[in-house]
Amino acid sequence: MRIVWTALLCGALSLSGRVPAAAGGSPLPGASPLPSISPSPGILALQECRLEHPLRIAAVAARCGILKVPEDPEHPAGASIDLRVAVVPALNRRSAAAPLFLLAGGPGQAATDLYASYAGAFARVNRNHDIVLVDQRGTGRSAPLSCAYPDDWQSASDAPGEMLRLRQATLTCLGKFGPRVRFYTTSVAVADLDKVRSALGYARIDLYGSSYGTRVAELYMRRYPLSTQAVVLDGVTYPEQAIGPDTPSDGERALYLIVTRCESAPDCAAAYPALRQDLDGLRHRFGPQKEALIVSDPSSGQPLPVEFNRGMLNAALRFLSYNATEASLLPTLLHQGAAGNLTPLATQVIMMARQIGDQLASGMQNSVICSEDEPMFAASNIDRQRIAQTYQGGDQLDALAEICALWPRGPVDPDLHSPLRSDIPTLLLSGDADPVTPPDDAARAARGLTHHLNLVLPGEGHGQLATGCVPRLMAEFLDTARPETLDATCLGSHRPAPFFVSTTGPAP
Predict the structure, then answer these.
(1) Are strands 452-457 and 59-70 parallel, antiparallel or unpaired?
(2) DSSP state, residue 95
(3) How far, in Å, CA of 138 to CA of 146, rounded?
(4) What's the pLDDT tens digit per position in 162-214?
């Protein structure tokens, strides 16, 4: 199941096709020379490059370089890997503000991928701050651990067959990369990050962590507090958390909030007066049943045979719950599916699954989850009966058990899951309908932060990077590092994306 752990991909990733990300680092022909980056003498040489939007509709000028680091940190004289680094210089070259390091989600997404699609959301920050992109080891162009897992919309509904395919795909991946995959954990990546900071000559840095990237940011705050100026946590995990056991219940909660919001919106309620029955009917039908479809391949337009089953329905509910933009489509697609037209729902799932799979290094994801989270499951008192009542059920947990039984465990700091206590200025961002990192997670993370502001956006899902006035608030916070003076009243007038009342869009 290649997308089994897309649960912590940055919510800023659009699953509808407007912002899938794959950033390059190719030379920038004909571009005006960028100012040289010289925060203080560093050892990492940078050259002009561009970070290209995957749809080739834009390219961001940057300076790129490679930092070699030991693959095994305990054997620095052994094999090395290349860390891909890109720096987008601040527009204000007189600014002495700390640079902002971006930490992407997943696990498995590359920082350059995130930025290439969302440069506009960082435009205000970039006025005074260099933006530094480090593809975390195992992602992007930093020795990527890319495995070929089947998408869960392709899987048959027979559990034994699915588990066999998972084992085979995992063994194939391990045959490709070998036991060295154990050196791709968060603890090793955080040490890499500080090596980049030092190599670029920065004394102190800011951090933006999205989703899984919030774990990376929290560990960096713990390990290198004197090097950390200010932190933005977006879609927050708390340090004590084992990612996985709560995901089915969190997803069920978000789905309920979306349906309730439609029922409370006059236009949506009028268009879909039986939305809850439509949803319940589909969930009941595609437990035991499945249906063969022929859809137009979203990539090629050619006929594509698919089987609409429980896995495909669950993937649709999961993907379309991630943020308010995707959720705006959910009532229309559910209504059409309940009426017998499953093609739009199936096509949306296929498109979204491919986009996520294209930017997720699933081998790196395995290294993180199997080393840092799955070992905690036995002590997590997982309520299997409660999980079985959710639309996701225990499928992801069962799949992880199969993968992690084979995957080597790597280095994990003994205090990775200890409560974090810090006075570093921190801005926490959550959506109240987040299906994977709900606001309660941010509240738990904030307990040990003595200098923070915790903002929750109504009606929104996972990741607030480009939502409403958040880009401005983030820039103002990073310019001052004073959360207590940040004026967030602009969020009072924010409304999530309106629901589609037909395939043509929302009501006028």
Answers:
(1) unpaired
(2) -
(3) 8
(4) 889 999 999 999 999 999 999 999 999 999 999 999 999 999 999 999 999 99
Residue 456 bridge partners (DSSP): 430
Cα dihedral angle (179, 353, 164, 361), rounded to 10 degrees?
0
Rg of the chain over Cα atoms, rounded to whole angstroms, equals 22
First CA to last CA distance, the chain: 40
Q: At 496, is the secondary structure helix, strand, or coil?
A: coil
In whole angstroms, how far apart are CA 342 and each of 22, 43, 116, 189?
A: 30, 56, 33, 43
Residue type at 233 in one-letter notation: L
Sole residue written with tokens 């709900």:
438
- Residues 57 and 491: their CA atoms lie apart, in Å, by 30
Name the β-bridge partners of 453: 427
Written in H, E and C, the secondary structure of 205-270 is EEEEEECHHHHHHHHHHHHCHHHEEEEEEECCCCCCCCCCCCHHHHHHHHHHHHHHHHHHCHHHHH
Dihedral of alpha carbons 46, 47, 48, 52, sign: negative
Q: Specify the pairing of strand 291-296 against strand 303-308.
A: antiparallel
Residues 38, 501: Cα–Cα separation, whole Å: 53
Q: Which residue has the tokens 């974090």?
A: 420
User: Per-residue confidence at 503, pLDDT binned at 50, 70, 90?
Assistant: confident
What's the rounded Cα separation, in Å, for the pair 268 and 283?
A: 21
pTM of the model: 0.92
Task: Find the mean pLDDT for residues 451-455.
Answer: 98
Average pLDDT, the chain: 90
User: Strand 59-70's sheet: what is its strand order?
Assistant: 47-52, 59-70, 80-88, 131-134, 100-103, 205-210, 228-234, 426-431, 452-457
CB 286 within 8 A of CB 308: yes
Q: In this structure, what are the phi and psi dihedrals at residue 334, rounded to the nearest 5 degrees?
A: -65, -40
Determine the Cα–Cα distance for residues 191 and 100; give it in Å rounded to an integer: 17
CA 273 to CA 279: how far, in whole Å?
12
Sequence-separated (6 or more) residues with CB below 8 Å from residue 113? 21, 22, 23, 104, 139, 140, 359
Q: Which residue has the tokens 């490059």?
A: 49
Dump pLDDT digits (tens) for 209-245. 999 999 999 999 999 999 999 999 999 999 999 999 9
> How many whole angstroms separate alpha carbon 178 and alpha carbon 107?
20
State the pLDDT confidence band at 152, using cuts at 50, 70 and 90. low
The answer to whether 16 and 34 have CB atoms below 8 angstroms apart is no
- Backbone angles phi and psi of 88, in degrees to 5: -105, 110
